Description:
The protein is built from 3 helices and 7 strands. The protein has one domain (12-159). The radius of gyration is 18 Å and the shape is globular. The protein has helices at 12-29, 85-95, 138-156, and strands at 38-43, 53-62, 66-75, 98-105, 110-116, 119-120, 157-159. The longest helix is centred in the C-terminal third of the chain and has 19 residues, at 138-156. By secondary structure, the chain is an alpha+beta fold.
Amino acid sequence: MERVLPKHNVDLRKQQAAASSNYIRLLKLLPQLREHDSYSFSLHIPGSITADTLVETNVMERGPYTTLLQIHQTLLLAAQPVQSEIESRESDWNQLPANMSIRIYHDAQMAEIVNFTGVRHFKSSYSYPNKQMLLPDEKQQVNYFLGEWLNYCLKFGVAVEPLKLTVVGV
């Protein structure tokens, strides 16, 4: 007999707070998101001898109140010495190919993951265990991951091309 845990209780305030924080982080990372359809930048772990990771973003849909952003992360190989085992374990997440789609709600000033490495349209809660082995709070966890990933990009991201900024009101 398969044991099923009780259904996860959704904390709507925490989910909204995470989505609002992700919106702010996303606009800091991509300040001209409403005007440009694509960005690319690289990520590097300070002090690491590993290759950089290329992050490419593309606007897939743009509406008056929402934007659908596709993010693809790939490892750029470089002729570097082999890293230590400890450094390898610490940097593994940065080297994984990541594909995610983020729905940005400009009117509500929120952003959430709607597709992460092939899993789409997250429910607010899942029974556990389930066939896909998703966590009871999978939606909340992927949005927390998005927040951590955006913070990392803000801290360690390097523009591939210089940003062209326009001075307004001078």
